[in-house]
Amino acid sequence: MAQLTHAALGLLPERAVALGVQVENYDVTVHCQLSSVTAADQEDLAEIAGELATLVGDDVNIRIVYEVRQQPMLSPRDGVRWVYAARAEG
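Predicted structure:
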């Protein structure tokens, strides 16, 4: 979690509503929920993956998964450790 937080500094996509990580042995999946997805958002996520790879080394497989949501949808049972969630509007 700390490595993802560090890797995302200054790179969190503008439309991100949640960002988290799921770790299973040497497989790391970065989960991002966005209100919409642009090419710039995809570039930001690729940069986050690159920064994370630099921090954890070459033995770890990193992939990015994103989904479009207007509000964060987080669960303590989804296996994802969420490090960012946008404030609910309203």
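Summary: Residues 4 and 34 are 17 Å apart (CA to CA).
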